[in-house]
Each structure stands twice: as C-alpha cells, then as structure tokens.
Design brief:
Number of helices: 5
Radius of gyration: 15 Å
Oligomer: single chain
Distance between the termini: 31 Å
Strand content: under 5%
Number of domains: 1
Number of strands: 0
Order of helices and strands: HHHHH
Length: about 100
C-alpha cells in the first residue's frame, strides 16, 4: 500500500509541492483563515491583511501562490492523495487546540 502511494507521488509533475509541503502550507493557510474569520474588520481591511498573511505563509515555505495553485490542481486530480493530505491537515489543526 505504501509503495503504491509512493509510486503515484513519484509520477507527479516537476515543480509540484510534496505531500508534506502541501500539508504544512494548507495547515498554515487554514489557521490564517480561522484567525481572519474571528476578526470584526471591514472587508476592505481584511483583504489586504489576508493577502499579506498568505504571502508570509508562502515565503515561510519557500513557495508562491502559482506553485501552490498548480500543486493543488494536481493533487485534486489524485483524490486518494488529496484525501490523505486533508486528513493530516485536520489532525494537525485539531492538535493545536
């Protein structure tokens, strides 16, 4: 089973974030989304704040929005791998409570 997952992951295109990188980026983005939803600011203030927060996350993980979007599109075409990613994101988010 593990070999099958590794085999599929190896066939992903070049320039795509690894599963672990996706887990880390999505986890950070979900935490930012939760924090922004808890703020009572106007949408004019929240959008630039969210954009800045996303840039910080992408910089932290040494990636950018284009690479993240491309990676997300690839992983969503591989539902089993995407499900594993999102399951681990959920585990990590729940462990931060």
């Amino acid at each position: 089973m593990i070999f099958a997952c590794k085999s599929k992951e190896q066939r992903l295109p070049d320039g795509i974030l690894s599963k672990e990188e996706m887990i880390e980026v999505i986890t950070d983005l979900q935490m930012i989304e939760a924090a922004h939803k808890s703020m009572t600011l106007s949408s004019n203030t929240q959008k630039p704040m969210r954009d800045t927060s996303y840039t910080i996350v992408f910089n932290k993980h040494q990636t950018n929005v284009a690479t993240f979007d491309s990676s997300l599109r690839v992983y969503t075409r591989h539902p089993a791998m995407f499900s594993e990613i999102m399951e681990e994101v959920g585990v990590r988010l729940n462990s931060t409570e």
